[in-house]
Design a protein that fits this description.
Layout (H helix, E strand, L loop, with lengths): L1 E3 L5 E3 L18 H18 L2 E5 L13 H22 L5 E3 L12 E4 H7 L5 E7 L1 H14 L5 E2 L1 E5 L5 E6 L10 E6 H4 L13 E8 H9 L13 E3 L2
Parallel strand pairs: 4-10, 8-12
Antiparallel strand pairs: 1-2, 3-5, 4-7, 6-10, 6-11, 8-9
Helix pairs in contact: 2-6, 3-6
């Protein structure tokens, strides 16, 4: 490697030196840098602490077997906020939503819900996508859910399993799966790309990228309601 100066003389890089700097609480802050970022930090903190809605109870992703109140709430919010966008762009409705249990990173605590709450629940930059799937892929999706035996959040999809975790009822918006129908499944980009071993999204008929983050959908929803009411229901259950 070499550099040329204005006289076309060649200079060769012969050595690079560096040292390890430990990042810890012992590092002294730079007053000039602190003064520079202080207004920005204050603005961000004010925005994060703005109250959007109220939670009458505390909700955790461990409070149910195959469906949880917080998971149902998240999936329903994604449907309610994303469907109008998708329909405006395509003329189609989203058929159902599938998210992942591990994507919910915090509880919803009883009390005021702030913008900060949305960042705690969904710290990732996961964006909403809609995938057009044939019935064979929907069957693969159902097989995944019954095998995983986890409370992966769903909305507009109903799945009832027997004691051996075999599906005895499957419906989408109250109707049985039609082998001749293409279904528009709403999920996030992480799962679409195979996250949590959800490989059934590819190949597909079409992919629609909404450029809308799950976290932003949650914030938009909380701004519209006074009090949330997440519940555990019968959308994904096992009958023993």
């Amino acid at each position: 490697m070499f550099f040329l100066n204005c006289k076309n003389e060649k200079f060769h890089l012969v050595k690079i030196e560096g040292k390890k700097i430990e990042i810890s609480d012992s590092l002294e802050t730079d007053p000039e840098i602190e003064a520079f970022i202080a207004p920005f930090r204050s603005h961000i903190e004010k925005d994060l602490d703005s109250v959007l809605a109220y939670a009458p109870e505390t909700y955790s992703k461990t409070d149910g077997h195959l469906n949880t109140a917080i998971g149902n709430f998240m999936a329903d919010v994604v449907y309610e906020e994303a469907n109008p966008i998708f329909k405006k762009r395509t003329g189609h409705d989203i058929d159902f939503v599938l998210l992942n249990h591990g994507g919910i990173r915090s509880i919803i605590s009883k009390g005021n819900l702030k913008t900060r709450t949305a960042y705690e629940i969904m710290p990732f930059e996961n964006s909403i996508v809609v995938v057009a799937l044939k019935s064979t892929q929907i069957n693969s999706l159902i097989n995944y859910l019954k095998t995983a035996k986890r409370a992966h959040p769903i909305s507009k999809l109903k799945l009832i399993l027997d004691k051996d975790f075999e599906a005895i009822e499957v419906s989408i918006k109250g109707k049985s799966i039609d082998p001749n129908t293409t279904y528009y499944v709403c999920t996030n980009d992480f799962l679409y790309n195979g996250g949590d071993s959800m490989t059934f999204f590819k190949p597909n008929d079409s992919l629609y990228i909404l450029n809308y983050k799950i976290r932003n959908a949650l914030i938009d929803h909380l701004k519209k309601v006074d009090t949330i009411n997440p519940v555990i229901d019968d959308r994904f259950i096992q009958i023993k």
